Amino acid sequence: MTIAEVVSGYADHLRSRDVSAHTSRAYIADVTEFFDHAAHSRAAQSTTTDAGVRTAEFGVDDIDLNDLRSWLITLDDAGAAKSTVARKIAAVKSFFAYCVNQHGLTNNPAARLRTPKKESRLPTVLKPQQAADLVSRERPAHAEAEDSDPIEAAKWVRDAAILELLYATAVRVSELTGLNRSDVDHQRSMITVLGKGNKERRVPFGKPAQSALQQWLNLRQTFASDGSGDALFLGVRGGRIGARQVRELVHKYGADDPSAPDIGPHGLRHSAATHMLDGGADLRQIQEFLGHSTMSSTQIYTHVSMQRLQETYRQAHPRA
User: Fold this and answer.
1) What proportion of the chain, given as a percentage, has pLDDT over 90?
2) Active-site residue flag, 15
3) Would you say residue 133 has pLDDT above 90?
């Protein structure tokens, strides 16, 4: 089988194991990138035979540890983040393990690769008042006017609902954009989201988000079209709103406060979790709220809270 055929089979394998579409795309892109690198390297090192045929052709079973290390050196030279390198290593390890199990490859050349340790950088979070100012914005006067543009007015109401729901529920941006109207339980003030690994969870939201959401639903028909389906949040052309649009609007409204750090939707997620911990929530409850599969992912917020305490101490204590 050609490399392209094996990679195609690997893509089918990932789908059969209910790997998320996002992870599957990333893994396939990483594996494809590696083989492109290997092909380029071998072509540069190949010789020409007497018959004039270049000897750069190779198969999956020709790959060795040196090919993989050469690729990682290229990534390091390009300044790739440790988290990116870690994902790429996981991708090639998974791919070659698949080849061992499904195609009789004698060994996994990626098995000896070491995953770099994650950077210890703590997430950037808003202060509670900064978060409140961002999500509870007053509707501009021109939007209240009778002759206001209905599209712009509806867009502002939609954006307000998105900001409120992001902070209220701390959902990932992909979880928010995947929401349907049927996923909202208005009576219990809860949403049902599909998280990583296609795991469903129920997340509560408060009265401010409930009010903002209802205002948006009252105007949703302004954007609705035949292709809208049951999508909760829509773009101006009627399709389901995308993650990029949501990131842009969070950055846009966040820029109104020069004292606040520039964050995206994930920054709102970090902020909500940190504020819950500061308010007395239990780590196990926050883990369930965020949809983390392991407690280690949630414990980072303990470090964030401690860092904030140290900063406050240095600013406020006379003997600091």
Assistant:
1) 67
2) no
3) yes
pTM comes to 0.68
**Under a CB-based contact definition with an 8 Å cutoff, are residues 193 and 183 in contact?**
yes
Closest by CA to 37, choosing from 114, 103, 98, 92, is: 92
The answer to whether residue 207 is catalytic is no
Confidence of residue 49 (pLDDT cuts 50, 70, 90): very low
Catalytic, out of 240, 269, 270, 275 = 269
CA atoms of 50 and 228, how far apart (whole Å): 62
* Amino acid 51: pLDDT: 44
Q: Which of 103, 127, 251, 266 is catalytic?
A: 266
Domains and their CATH numbers in the chain: 3-103 (1.10.150), 128-316 (1.10.443.10)
Q: So what's the pLDDT on residue 305? A: 82
| pLDDT value at residue 54 | 42
Answer yes or no: are the C-beta atoms of 130 and 257 closer than 8 Å. yes
Those residues whose C-beta lies under 8 Å from the C-beta of residue 190, and which sit 6 or more positions away, are 184, 202, 203, 204, 205
Q: What is the pLDDT of residue 318?
A: 81
Which among 82, 103, 137, 196 is annotated as catalytic?
196
**List of residues 6+ apart from 197 with CB closer than 8 A:** 18, 19, 20, 293
The per-residue pLDDT for range 67-102, each reduced to its tens digit, is 999 999 999 999 888 889 999 999 999 999 999 999
Query: Which strands make up the sheet holding 200-204, listed edge to edge?
Result: 184-185, 190-194, 200-204
Active-site choice (155, 172, 240, 270):
172
